[in-house]
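CORE FACILITY INTAKE
Project code: CF-77B
Contact: R.S. (postdoc)
Sample description: multi-component assembly, two entities in total
Requested service: structural model of the whole complex
Turnaround: standard
Below are the sequence entries exactly as provided by the requester. Do not edit them.
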Amino acid sequence: EDQVTQSPEALRLQEGESSSLNCSYTVSGLRGLFWYRQDPGKGPEFLFTLYSAGEEKEKERLKATLTKKESFLHITAPKPEDSATYLCAVQAGSGTYKYIFGTGTRLKVLA
Amino acid sequence: DAGVTQSPTHLIKTRGQHVTLRCSPISGHKSVSWYQQVLGQGPQFIFQYYEKEERGRGNFPDRFSARQFPNYSSELNVNALLLGDSALYLCASSSRWGPTEQFFGPGTRLTVL
């Protein structure tokens, strides 16, 4: 069964304290891996798309990487405004491209 | 540019009732997907439509149905509401068919009493 697991479930960081979030996946025929940020009561906001192992994407303090079994979202010198839930999703298969989301990592950055 | 819009923002229904949720995609986007998100969980895929045809369906009962109109807007219908249907319902649009990023609306918060 296709599955996406994110860890840790929750993470508290001091401002400036870098860390990484993990997304491991077990799917048949990965077509793409996506990272989203979600603020409370709002819809997810798109961050990155990764299509193949070895690919990396960067945006401000965030960097996403992809291997054959997992993806990491690295947060460098985070600020309080980076506090949010970070969701990982995969698209797999052919013909129908349903998204499978993980349960997310709730990040809290303290000033 | 307007993003994905959803209506209504909030909705309160009682068990057994029917509900219709609406979504307008980003201009030029032809694909719309629907998700259910229970508090503390990731979004669960319900349907995907592309060019007015159903292209994917998640593990939801037949009480859930959807359609896409010629202008690419979409409706999600849920019949015979259960308490467990209380959730945030998200609509997402994308520009093309296949593996690609999706852009989400703000969601409709449905409460079933």
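Facility notes:
- The longest strand of chain B covers residues 87-94.
- The CA atoms of residues 47 and 102 of chain B lie 13 Å apart.
Invoice: internal transfer
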